[in-house]
Q: What sequence folds into this?
């Protein structure tokens, strides 16, 4: 993997000499970087857009991630015994801290931040452990959760410079597998939203909900096909708006959140009391932190390919520092552990808007939503079936990007196809058979219930076993078998 971020070749740049039929990824990136430097062009990741485009594109990112940010506090709050008003406060705090974490990731400072269009928000990986820690303990339970998150995050921050060195164990056969699993693992979330989001309600899975999701999906696809330029780039946002308007006469749009929301509300630091520190809770959240760091590493590698700036050790180290620092700050404002939001990677791939400042604008919007609950409630009006219809496209795009990466992974060499088969198969277990690990200890379920994590671990271990340990590659296998793959000149990398 290159030592420094590279520029990706633009379509109008002359193609490299490919008389032998292929060029290495590093060579293509180096030539593109030289061409970009020669005419003084900025990498698309570092470009700024006009204010209106910046705001609307950033708002689209917020719309895509909103449900994912507020869902964990919505689940954890009642489980630990908080009132509806206290749970709503947690949701606002989660939006606020997600905005801070996103700014740390996109803008950054010192050695903090991947400086990629990377959205951060509350991690789903911590939901089950947090419920186990704080169940029916009220404010004390929240205080113990916050104390454990702070300790785990500080340890994660210190571990980041060492954890990032694992990047060499993430060749295309691994990253392609993990990216594919990220997309496939997220699709059930979209399917759940499409049915209504809450299995306890009477209309869950109703024809109305599913039809509304289908209508939104068709609208998004049609807009992507018919529109051009900027309007095409915000097709998801337009689809959500049109879908919501159609949902009003269908009777599935709920405006109660707007009526009951306060105009202004700052997340008072440690509103539930000072953090409390319990060893068992800390160990549990440390495991969650390792899971989050593993998933964030895979997400950064995926996003790096999509935007044409491959994530090297330096980028991953900065990204992990932003993740862990954001998570350490979050409990001070009553928020939970933060990590990368994979669904927004699909949005970047689909819209082709690669500017990190667009996502930073989304981070500012999240902070405003956290400070102005009535503004946050406007996005909450979007019905989950509408969000589910758009989510199918978003999450499917991530999976498609993973498949495209696997196409460059030399699956015909060595045992690479076997690596992908085993990793994808095991990674799909939590999706296809959710109760498969029901008899395992609860602490292990933090990892086992994440198909992304288990698939990533399996892919890394098998890649080491087949392509590194005890292997003496011949001249033919030196390129392609273990990750320094050859890229066909016409293929490119990632989603174009």
A:
């Amino acid at each position: 993997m290159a030592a420094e971020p590279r520029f990706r070749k633009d379509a109008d740049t002359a193609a490299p000499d490919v008389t032998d039929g292929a060029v290495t990824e590093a060579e293509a990136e180096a030539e593109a970087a030289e061409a970009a430097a020669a005419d003084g062009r900025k990498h698309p990741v570092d470009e700024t857009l006009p204010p209106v485009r910046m705001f609307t594109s950033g708002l689209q990112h917020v719309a895509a991630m909103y449900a994912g940010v507020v869902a964990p506090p919505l689940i954890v709050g009642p489980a630990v015994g908080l009132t509806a008003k206290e749970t709503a406060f947690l949701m606002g705090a989660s939006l606020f801290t997600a905005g801070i974490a996103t700014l740390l990731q996109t803008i950054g400072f010192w050695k903090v931040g991947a400086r990629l269009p990377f959205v951060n928000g509350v991690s789903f990986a911590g939901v089950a452990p947090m419920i186990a820690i704080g169940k029916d303990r009220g404010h004390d339970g929240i205080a113990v959760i916050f104390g454990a998150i702070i300790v785990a995050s500080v340890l994660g921050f210190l571990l980041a410079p060492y954890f990032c060195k694992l990047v060499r164990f993430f060749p295309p056969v691994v990253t392609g597998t993990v990216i594919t699993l990220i997309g496939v693992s997220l699709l059930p979330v979209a399917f759940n939203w499409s049915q209504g989001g809450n299995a306890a309600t009477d209309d869950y899975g109703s024809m109305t909900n599913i039809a509304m999701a289908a209508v939104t999906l068709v609208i998004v696809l049609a807009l992507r096909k018919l529109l051009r330029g900027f309007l095409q780039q915000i097709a998801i946002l337009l689809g959500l708006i049109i879908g919501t308007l159609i949902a009003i006469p269908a009777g599935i749009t709920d405006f109660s959140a707007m009526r009951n929301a306060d105009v202004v509300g700052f997340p008072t630091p440690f509103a539930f009391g000072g953090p409390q520190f319990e060893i068992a809770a800390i160990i549990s959240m440390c495991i969650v932190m390792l899971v989050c760091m593993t998933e964030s590493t895979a997400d950064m590698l995926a996003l790096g390919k999509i935007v044409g700036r491959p994530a090297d050790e330096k980028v991953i180290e900065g990204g992990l520092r932003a993740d862990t620092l954001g998570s350490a700050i979050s409990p001070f404002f009553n928020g939970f552990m933060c990590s990368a939001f994979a669904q927004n990677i699909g949005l970047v791939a689909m819209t082709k808007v690669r500017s990190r400042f667009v996502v930073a604008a989304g981070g500012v919007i999240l902070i405003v939503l956290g400070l102005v609950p009535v503004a946050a409630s406007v996005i909450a009006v979007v019905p989950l079936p509408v969000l589910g219809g758009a989510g199918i496209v978003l999450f499917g795009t991530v999976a498609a990007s993973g498949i495209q990466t696997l196409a460059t992974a030399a699956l015909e060499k060595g045992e690479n196809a076997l690596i992908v088969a085993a990793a994808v198969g095991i990674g799909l277990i939590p999706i296809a058979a959710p109760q498969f690990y029901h008899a395992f200890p609860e602490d292990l379920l933090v990892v086992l219930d994440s198909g992304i994590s288990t698939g990533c671990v399996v892919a890394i271990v098998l890649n080491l076993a087949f392509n590194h340990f005890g292997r003496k590659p011949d001249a033919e296998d030196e390129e392609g078998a273990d990750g320094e793959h050859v890229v066909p000149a016409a293929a490119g990398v990632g989603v174009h």
Notes: Strands lie at 22-24, 120-122, 338-340, 486-488.
